Structures are given as structure tokens and as C-alpha cells.
């Protein structure tokens, strides 16, 4: 069945049902109108000013780095703001706004801050800003996104402008890793002066790019920070624009109207790679593509039904036929490349007979199961939905597929109001299980549709111990509980691809943060 989906796509049959209409790019002539307008704009601006034009599937929703949960937001904010510690694409941790860090006691970390760093408004970065930034992550008034990663924090001290002391409630060996993924530094004086609403729309950071403007639905413009502490980027401006339709992003890249595109689908990667003006860069995603499950609705409130849905998915066929082999069939909720991933475990099984048996045992009576799919929010999301719907129907499940846009998905995600399933891409932010399972399946998070007391207790125990053997044992047990209950239907661990013009040199970070810094980005165009 997945081959039928892949074949019909490659032959152009049912193109509207798989790709949507190019009018999603906006009024004025669909893709051709967009390219015409973009070409004129690019000729007048990009080539003369050495701009870097990036197209991504959806618009940004806000730029406060401690509050946003949206990948498109982070693609922009990660370049406006810095962290104390940063993670390079190879997974190693490096100094950033902190030049050194030491664990001075079981529950105490000391960070030495970099001298001579200025905020984009010209004021100096000090430990007061760092303390304010971390205080925001665990006080009740801010940032649900960071409630779980930093719930081990007890108090923060700033004894002098260049020293930060972090006290935790119990030992937390992951503090540097958490700061690298989630610890963006924000300017306390600017926020106190303008308020959070203005800051979320006109942010000030210390990063390599400074905010210029944001026209919702059109573009966000950033300018190179000529005073950046790690050296300025060789671009004058970066322009980030939302283009929903995947082929529209590819066409714009190959016509020279964009310099970089994100979420390059596997079926388009060969087209980009074979064009003499373009190239492809990719990395194995540090996370999973999953169908998030609303376990509060029938029949998904029965774990046997969720087990059946998982067993009915032929993941090998999806990877082979829809992803052209550019993905991995997971063996559980710990992605390959993470600490405590067990390569000896077999891939998640495809067992349609077992799926039918579980449906009979559960007393399933053809109640509808809804998939609210996006189209282009994740690479291949609509195609995978079509294939999985066929697989589920083959074992006797009645499936309803509804297409929603990214804005609707975000609203439903925040309000926990999905009818059944939707696509999600949980990222392993710390490159070990607490950065994925422990963070996203915790109480009072947007993924919190399901609770299990034993799972929750194991997550807390693992978070608060420095003993790696105990942590490994807890994560094995958590994985077994997960696979019994399937709060997410895990589908695959994909390679994430970017399309680039030939003059762009870029090494992607597996965590989907679109970092543009001198260690992984260069533009050779004069």
C-alpha cells in the first residue's frame, strides 16, 4: 500500500491530494506569481546586499526564546540569542557566553562568563542577565516550555558580573546540556523597560544576528551583528520567509530566489542535488517523527487499540518507499545517537495479524480514528498519513483523515484539542532520554495526554541521579512502559535535509536549531 502511495506521487496522480494547491503560497498567481514577485524582490535586494534568504514551512509565532515551542520560531531566535554553553553539530559541548564551568559540589555549578559581550542595544551582558534568564525558567509566571528541563533548579546567584552560581535541588549532571539547548540568555533591563509583549515582537539578544523587522505572514528580517563576540557572519541580512508548499520552496531555491530551504522532502532531494546551482545538506534527526495520540477519546483510550495501530504500521516500507531509505526504523522512544540508546533492541515490529488480534480483544467496533495531518509542516507528513491510513484500514480500522494548516495545529497543540492523532517531531534536546521522554511526557506539558505513575516516578528518579547505571535502568523501564501504552505512535527517525545554493556552506545541527555561526555556516558569494 505504501508503494501505491509512493508510485501515485511519483507519477503525478492525485497531486492535489498529496501536495495541496500552490495557492497556499498566497494570492496573485500561485507559485508563478510568488516566483515572479520573489524574483523582482531578490534582484533588487538579495544580490546587491549579500542577503541570505531562507524559506521554511510556517511563519514564526513569537520570538521569546524561553516561551516558544515552534520549530520555525527557534530557527530565528536561535540566531538572535546565545546560550552559556552551545552544542556543535557533532554533539560536543563548547563554551559560548560562559567560557568555563565547573561542578563545585554535588548540587552546585559555577560558570565563568565571557567578558566584553554587548546586547544588540549596546548594553553589556553580565551575570545579572544570566540570573534573570534562568530565574524565568522555573518561576510560575513564565515559559511552560522550560518547566520540565529546569525543574531541578533551586536558586541562582550572581556574586559578581562575571560569575554565575547555579544551585540545584538534587544532583543534576545535565545542567550544561540543558543550558545548551534551552538556556537562551535574555536582557533583563530591556525587558523591564519595554515589557514582555514588546520583547516577544522586537527582541534584543547577543547573537550573531540582530532583529530588524517582522511582517507576519511575509518575512522576518535580521541583520548581521558586526560586534558579535565570536566574529560577524559574512552576510548583511538574513530574511526568513514562510512558504507552506514543499515544491514551492524547491522551485524558489532552484530559480535563485532563495539561498536555503528547510524541511526538504526526500522526493525533492534528488532534484536539488542534481541541479548544478544547488546542493543538499542533511543530518540524522536527534528525535523522532511520531503521531501524537489523544488518549482521552474513544477508541484511543484503550491501550490495546493503540498497540494495534502501532503494530499495523510497516515502517520499513515507509522508510524505503517514501523516504528513499533516508531514515531509521526506531526500536523505541530513545533515538539513535542518544545516550542510553540500546542498538541491540529490534526495530519496532510490523505485525498486522497481531494488530487484528488486539482490536478483537479490545472489542473494537469500527469507531472512527481521526488523523489531523499537516502538509509540509514535517517532511512527507501528508504522504505518510495516506500510507498509514491504508495500513490501518487493512487491519479493519475506520480512518478519517483531515488536513489542517500549521497555525491550526499550533492552536490545537496548545489547547490539547486534537480529535485523535496529529504529527509531532519531539526533539531529544539533551541527547539523552530526559531531553525527550522525560521532558515531553511530563505532567502539564502540551504532550501530556497520558499519565502513568510508574513512568513519572522513573523519570523523576533518573533526572535526579548522577549514577549512569541507575539512569540506564530507569530508561529501560520507561521505554517498556511507553511501548505498552503508546502515548505516541512512533513512526521513524528521519534524516533532515536542507536545500542550499552552491555558494552556501552549512553543517546542520541534528536538533533542528538553524544555527548560523562561523563554526557551521559560510556564504562564499561576493
What is the CA-CA span between the terminal residues? 49 Å
Largest sheet: 12 strands, mixed
Spell out the CATH superfamily of the largest domain: Dipeptide-binding Protein, Domain 3
Classified by CATH, the class of the largest domain is Alpha Beta
Radius of gyration: 23 Å
Given helix and strand content, the structural type is alpha+beta
Which CATH architecture of the largest domain?
Roll
Helix content: 25-40%
Total number of helices: 18
Q: How much β-strand is present in the residues?
A: 15-25%
Poorly predicted regions:
8-49, 141-145
Which topology of the largest domain does CATH recognise?
A: Dipeptide-binding Protein, domain 3
Shape: globular
Mean of pLDDT: 88
DSSP strand tally:
20
Blueprint of the fold:
Layout: H1 2-10, H2 15-19, H3 30-49, E1 51-56, H4 71-80, E2 85-87, E3 93-95, E4 98-105, E5 108-113, H5 127-138, E6 153-160, E7 163-168, H6 175-182, H7 188-194, H8 196-201, E8 209-215, E9 219-224, E10 237-242, H9 246-254, E11 260-261, H10 266-273, E12 278-284, E13 289-293, H11 303-311, H12 315-322, E14 327-328, H13 352-362, E15 368-373, H14 381-394, E16 398-403, H15 406-415, E17 421-424, H16 437-440, H17 453-463, H18 468-485, E18 488-501, E19 504-506, E20 521-523
Parallel strand pairs: 1-10, 1-11, 15-16, 15-17
Antiparallel strand pairs: 2-3, 4-5, 5-7, 6-7, 8-9, 9-10, 11-18, 12-18, 13-17, 13-18, 14-18, 19-20
Helix pairs in contact: 1-12, 1-14, 11-13, 17-18
Amino acid at each position: 500500500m505504501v508503494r501505491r502511495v509512493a508510485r501515485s506521487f511519483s507519477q503525478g496522480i492525485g497531486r492535489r491530494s498529496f501536495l495541496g494547491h500552490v495557492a497556499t503560497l498566497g494570492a496573485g498567481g500561485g507559485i508563478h506569481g510568488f516566483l515572479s514577485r520573489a524574483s523582482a524582490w531578490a534582484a533588487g535586494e538579495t544580490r546587491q546586499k549579500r542577503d541570505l534568504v531562507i524559506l521554511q514551512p510556517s511563519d514564526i509565532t513569537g520570538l521569546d526564546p524561553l516561551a516558544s515551542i515552534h520549530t520555525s520560531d527557534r530557527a530565528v531566535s536561535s540566531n538572535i540569542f546565545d546560550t552559556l554553553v552551545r552544542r556543535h553539530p557533532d554533539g560536543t559541548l563548547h563554551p559560548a557566553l560562559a567560557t568555563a564551568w565547573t561542578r563545585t559540589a554535588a548540587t552546585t555549578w559555577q560558570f565563568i562568563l565571557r567578558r566584553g559581550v554587548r546586547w544588540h542595544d549596546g548594553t553589556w551582558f553580565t551575570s545579572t542577565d544570566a540570573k534573570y534568564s534562568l530565574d524565568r525558567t522555573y518561576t510560575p509566571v513564565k515559559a511552560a516550555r522550560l518547566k520540565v528541563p529546569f525543574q531541578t533548579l533551586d536558586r541562582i546567584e550572581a556574586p559578581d558580573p562575571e560569575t554565575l552560581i547555579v544551585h540545584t535541588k538534587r544532583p543534576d549532571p545535565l545542567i550544561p546540556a540543558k543550558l545548551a539547548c534551552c538556556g537562551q540568555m535574555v536582557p533583563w533591563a530591556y525587558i523591564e523597560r519595554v515589557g514582555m509583549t514588546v520583547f516577544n515582537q522586537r527582541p534584543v539578544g547577543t547573537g550573531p544576528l540582530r532583529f530588524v523587522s517582522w511582517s507576519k505572514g511575509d518575512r522576518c528580517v535580521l541583520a548581521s551583528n558586526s560586534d558579535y563576540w565570536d566574529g560577524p557572519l559574512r552576510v548583511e541580512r538574513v530574511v526568513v520567509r514562510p512558504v507552506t508548499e514543499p515544491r514551492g520552496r524547491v522551485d524558489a531555491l532552484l530559480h535563485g530566489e532563495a539561498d536555503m530551504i528547510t524541511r526538504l522532502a526526500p522526493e525533492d532531494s534528488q532534484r536539488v542535488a542534481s541541479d548544478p546551482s544547488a546542493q543538499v545538506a542533511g543530518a540524522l534527526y536527534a528525535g523522532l517523527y511520531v503521531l501524537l495520540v489523544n488518549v482521552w477519546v474513544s477508541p484511543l483510550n484503550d491501550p490495546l487499540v493503540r498497540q494495534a495501530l502501532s503494530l499495523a504500521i510497516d515502517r520499513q516500507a515507509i522508510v524505503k518507499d517514501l523516504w528513499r531509505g533516508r531514515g531509521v526504523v526506531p526500536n523505541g522512544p530513545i533515538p539513535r545517537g542518544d545516550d542510553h540508546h540500546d542498538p541491540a533492541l529490534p526495530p519496532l515490529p510490523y505485525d498486522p495479524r497481531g494488530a487484528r488480534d488486539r482490536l478483537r480483544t479490545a472489542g473494537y467496533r469500527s469507531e472512527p480514528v481521526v488523523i489531523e495531518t499537516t502538509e509540509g509542516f514535517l517532511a512527507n507528513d501528508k504522504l505518510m498519513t495516506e500510507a498509514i491510513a491504508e495500513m490501518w484500514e487493512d487491519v479493519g480500522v475506520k480512518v478519517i483523515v483531515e488536513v489542517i494548516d500549521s497555525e491550526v495545529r499550533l492552536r490545537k497543540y496548545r489547547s490539547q484539542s486534537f480529535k485523535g492523532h496529529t504529527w509531532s517531531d519531539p526533539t531529544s534536546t539533551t541527547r539523552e532520554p530526559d531531553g525527550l521522554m522525560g521532558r515531553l511526557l511530563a505532567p502539564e506539558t502540551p504532550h501530556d495526554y497520558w499519565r502513568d505513575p510508574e513512568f513519572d516516578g522513573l523519570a523523576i528518579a533518573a533526572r535526579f541521579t548522577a549514577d549512569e547505571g541507575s539512569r540506564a535502568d530507569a530508561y529501560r523501564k520507561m521505554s517498556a512502559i511507553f511501548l505498552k501504552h503508546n502515548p505516541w505512535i512512533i513512526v521513524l527517525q528521519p534524516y533532515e535535509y536542507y536545500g542550499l545554493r552552491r555558494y552556501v556552506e552549512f553543517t546542520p545541527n541534528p536538533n533542528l536549531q538553524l544555527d548560523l555561526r562561523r563554526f557551521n555556516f559560510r556564504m562564499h558569494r561576493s
